[in-house]
Design brief:
- The chain folds into two domains: about 90 residues, Roll (Ubiquitin-like (UB roll)), CATH 3.10.20.10; about 130 residues, Cytidine Deaminase, domain 2 (3-Layer(aba) Sandwich).
- It contains eight helices and eleven strands.
- With about 250 residues, the protein is an alpha/beta fold.
- It comes from Aureimonas ureilytica.
Length: about 250
């Protein structure tokens, strides 16, 4: 039996000529991926910090070449780290324990949603997983508005990559992550919490369970974490007050 399989390539993110990260990723939506990773890794704080982005096919994969303004590039060099990781490994290559667990800036408290919004968003993300339906081999991340209407779905062999692509889409579209919430197909590890907080998103919902450190980090940052979303049921792990009618923990 023939089976469709997803593409997987090495994708380098370089900053002013120096490699920052080499990730194994699905080679699609690479412009969003480069911007999203740069934002979530705190290389830049806004799209305008990038003077240009060149995406070039190279032997074995792709090179996404970000060029920053000189002053910002100098600050980047001072904190540069080299990270080479397997599929979507969001912390591989961190050079210290401090880098692996950066301080999380507490989130605001703007978002209020109905429980049905989570169910709706998860169903719409599933329906939008074109590559996933063909291959059964990729993760998905999506952003939904406060009513649960999905605005974008991105797929990748790495769950962290999929979330970076959504972050890039939001930034390029000029959208605020705290106007809605994130949904994902994966388990929730601490790296996903860190990325959601970097995006300033107040709620993350996922189909699977969290790790202990993910729970701790979500609590510290004030992120509402919804897990084990199955049909119309789910568990609220942290900060339930953003969901109408949810009991206190």
């Amino acid at each position: 039996m023939e089976r469709a399989v997803p593409a997987e390539s090495a994708v380098a993110i370089s900053v002013n000529g120096s490699t920052h990260a080499v990730m194994m990723a699905t080679p699609a939506d690479l412009r969003e991926f480069a911007f999203g990773l740069a934002l979530n890794e705190r290389i830049i704080s806004r799209i305008e910090d990038v003077e240009s982005l060149d995406i070039e096919p190279v032997e074995g994969g792709y090179d996404c070449r970000l060029w920053l303004a000189p002053a910002l590039a100098a600050r980047y060099v001072a904190r540069r780290r080299l990270m080479t990781g397997p599929v979507g490994c969001g912390l591989c290559g961190a050079e210290s324990l401090e880098q692996a667990r950066p301080e999380l800036v507490p989130l605001a408290d703007r978002l209020r949603i109905e429980p049905a919004a989570i169910v709706r968003a998860m169903a719409q993300m599933s329906a939008g997983q074109v590559l996933g339906a063909r291959t059964r081999a990729v993760h998905a991340a999506a952003f939904a508005n406060a009513e649960g209407e999905v605005q974008v779905v991105r797929e990748d062999v790495g769950r962290h990559n999929a979330l970076d692509k959504v972050a890039g889409w939001l930034a390029l579209e000029g959208r605020r992550a705290d106007d809605g919430f994130l949904v994902m197909t994966s388990r929730v590890s601490v790296e996903l919490i860190q990325k959601a907080v970097a995006m300033r998103c107040e709620l993350l919902a996922a189909v699977s369970a969290p790790t202990e450190l993910a729970l701790q980090s979500a609590t510290e940052a004030g992120l509402t974490l919804v897990v084990v979303v199955r049909g119309e049921t789910f568990e609220i792990a942290t900060r339930p007050e953003r969901i109408a009618g949810a009991p206190s923990l």
